[in-house]
Design brief:
Shape: globular
Helix content: 40-55%
CATH topology of the largest domain: TATA-Binding Protein
CATH architecture of the largest domain: 2-Layer Sandwich
Strand order of the largest sheet: 1-5-4-3-2
Distance between the termini: 19 Å
Number of helices: 17
EC number: 4.2.99.18
InterPro entries: DNA_glycosylase, HhH-GPD_domain, HhH_base_excis_C, OGG_N, Oxidative_DNA_repair_enzyme
Radius of gyration: 21 Å
Structural class: alpha+beta
Largest sheet: 5 strands, antiparallel
Protein name: N-glycosylase/DNA lyase
Number of strands: 7
Domain HhH-GPD: 228-382
GO molecular function: class I DNA-(apurinic or apyrimidinic site) endonuclease activity; damaged DNA binding; oxidized purine nucleobase lesion DNA N-glycosylase activity
Oligomer: single chain
CATH class of the largest domain: Alpha Beta
Order of helices and strands: HHEHEEEEHHHHHHEEHHHHHHHH
């Protein structure tokens, strides 16, 4: 269980990223107008009420989690808002659609058959499963919507050929996956109240940004996603990650015209010819970093090495990550914070540095025009 202090560090990092979140939230409002043309073909995953038997929920208020902030602010790059308020992405080797009401997070999970993924390794898909997935039919749900109060989350029936998981045993595992991914064991409401009473800067903006929390991601996906972030932006990174998954990952299922794949394994990223493929996919100089980092992990460590870094102290984990090609202090801190259970990690870029100077320590990095290693460390300490 994380202490209150460690949980506060989570929120402080997000506070420093509020300018990015504000900009991203504004972009979402513009995008709402552009998704209208897709609404008809997306009806099978754009209404909880269109097929209540295929949806389950977790009690969760907006004050605890805002999907539109958390999934779009640059922590992860695999979720897309295909219709206003409905997010589809890949998590633990399966395809999910998430949405939320005032009191609940609603979710549905797509698979190739009516069975859950194997307990021994939920994140991998076997050849037999892939064969079924290629022939899986997309959901065909009615367009007619019903009122929220007509949703019956206790309805266990599965109708039609909708390739979804709707069993009680599966729902428990799915709920645990989401609770772990969003770290719902941490109460943001209590922490917000405490921080507002102790930090005037936080108090000034907190009410406008409820429910912002750090994700707990798969270490492999998180590492190689953030290797792609250097000199890049969210939109372009998202496209790169989608292309590498389509090219190297395993096919999961198809929803309408959209085909979903797993994130590539270390073995797939380290395979002969991967660097050339990534260059063809538009990765540029990052292609070498991705390929060489995967090979380094497999040759010098083991496939489970990244996950094992969750068990070592923060400085040791960061140093280990920085030994990989293409991994500097910021990428290492992002992975430590968002995948390796290191809440004391504070990723710093020029924007975070400027916020720290403006709101907390005006003389921070005085005389420096660029973010040096020393200024990076000092900024992180200020924000702790």
């Amino acid at each position: 269980m994380r202490t209150e202090r460690n949980a506060r560090i989570h929120m402080r990092r997000l506070y420093d990223d509020f300018p990015t979140i504000i900009q991203r939230a504004g972009t979402l409002q513009v995008r709402e107008r552009s998704v209208g043309n897709n609404a008809k073909r997306m009806h099978h995953r754009t209404s909880v009420s269109s097929s209540p038997a295929c949806w389950r929920s977790i009690p969760c208020q907006h004050s605890e989690l805002r999907l539109d902030y958390v999934l779009a602010c640059g922590q992860t790059f695999r979720w897309k808002e295909f219709s206003p308020g409905y997010w589809t992405g890949v998590l633990k080797g399966r395809v999910w659609t998430l949405t939320q009401t005032d009191e609940h997070i609603w979710y549905t999970v797509y698979t190739n058959d009516q069975r859950p993924a194997q307990d021994s390794d939920e994140s991998k898909v076997t050849t037999e499963q892939n064969d079924r997935q290629h022939s899986a039919k997309p959901c065909k749900l009615p367009k007619k919507k019903i009122k929220k109060e007509e949703i019956n989350p206790e309805d266990k029936a599965i109708t039609g050929d909708c390739p979804l998981i709707c069993k009680d045993t599966d729902c428990k595992k799915d709920q645990e996956i989401l609770e772990d991914y969003f770290q719902l064991n941490i109460s943001l409401r209590t922490l917000y109240q405490h921080w507002e009473s102790s930090d005037p800067n936080f108090q000034r903006v907190a009410q406008d940004f409820p429910g912002i929390r750090i994700l707990r991601q798969d270490p492999t996906e998180c590492l190689f996603s953030f290797i792609c972030t250097s000199n890049n932006n969210i939109s372009r990174i998202t496209g790169m990650i989608e292309r590498v998954c389509c090219s190297l990952g395993q096919r999961l299922c198809q929803l309408d015209s959209d085909v979903y794949h797993t994130f590539p394994t270390l073995q797939e990223l380290a395979a002969e010819g991967t660097e050339a493929k990534l260059r063809d996919l538009g990765f540029g100089y990052r292609a070498r970093f991705v390929s060489e980092s995967a090979r380094t992990i497999l040759s010098k460590h083991c496939p489970d090495w990244l996950e094992s870094l969750r068990l070592v102290p923060y400085e040791e984990a960061k140093t280990a990550l920085c030994s990989l090609p293409g991994v500097g202090a910021k990428v290492a801190d992002c992975v430590c914070l968002m995948a390796l259970d290191k809440p004391e990690a504070v990723p710093v870029d020029t924007h975070v540095w400027q916020v720290a100077k403006r709101d907390y320590l005006p003389q921070l990095g005085s005389g420096n025009k660029t973010l040096t290693d020393r200024v990076y460390r000092e900024t992180g300490l200020v924000l702790l």
